[in-house]
């Protein structure tokens, strides 16, 4: 009898411990949210030339790390040099024309004061001088534009980053405004963590998180910087502007699941490996909050 009671007691204790463990894990999951649905993101800078022409030099290779001001590629400058010379000649011609019109105006002014010529001739000389001034201004503007176009034949890196998806070579004809390659901005890496809408109440700006990259057992730190204010409405009832919002698909179609909203997390500690766009990250929110919090990131200006 005592053995049976002891077995019942052991069973009851185990059930209580299991229930307590389940409740504790549930409360921890609710109050300190975590998710494995997270990815590394970064700003992509699309590189497009401002002028058209054939490429004569590619100064970088695919996946190369570059710095601000590094030469990426160069377009054939021959035609732009010729345009610069033409524009310089137009300036010289306009300056000579202006000088001639100035001399004519000076002569007409003296004759008009001496009542030798009619007022109309004097006014015509004034108009011709003003037109010559305008032509010189236009010629100088064309010269400056020609200089700019010549400078645009060399394309430099606007940010520190990494060359990505370079699929061009010398001889390729490029058009102005057509993106040719992409740069991953090295200073803009962040984590997009997708949390259920039921968990957002337990996440706040400045809250610290633990981050783990898939395949690496070396967690590093991060800080919540902002929480998304909207996602793409997939049922078609939203306006066209919702197409600019992030599109997040649910995992099970036949069960009504809570929507997931993106939470932007800024890494604050060194990762175990260099971050790359698309890497999978596990995110665990901690109760600790950063001392200095920027309220503007939350979308509301606070005093």
Structure, explained:
The chain has 303 residues and is α+β, with helices and mostly antiparallel strands. The chain has 3 helices and 15 strands. It has helices at residues 2-31, 78-113, 119-151; strands spanning 34-35, 38-41, 44-47, 53-58, 65-66, 71-75, 154-156, 161-164, 173-174, 181-185, 190-196, 207-213, 220-227, 260-267, 281-289. The strands form 3 sheets. It has a 7-stranded antiparallel β-sheet, with no helix packed on it. Strands 3-10-8-5 form a 4-stranded antiparallel β-sheet, with no helix packed on it. Helix 2 (78-113) runs antiparallel to helix 3 (119-151). The radius of gyration is 34 Å and the shape is elongated.
N-to-C span: 71 Å
**Spans with pLDDT under 50 lasting ≥5 residues?**
294-303
Q: Radius of gyration over alpha carbons?
A: 34 Å
Structural class: alpha+beta
Portion in helices: 25-40%
Total of helices: 3
Number of strand elements: 15
Q: How are the strands ordered across the major sheet?
A: 1-15-12-13-14-11-2
Strand content: 25-35%
Shape: elongated
Q: How confident is the prediction overall: mean pLDDT?
A: 85
Biggest sheet character: 7 strands, antiparallel
Order of helices and strands: HEEEEEEHHEEEEEEEEE
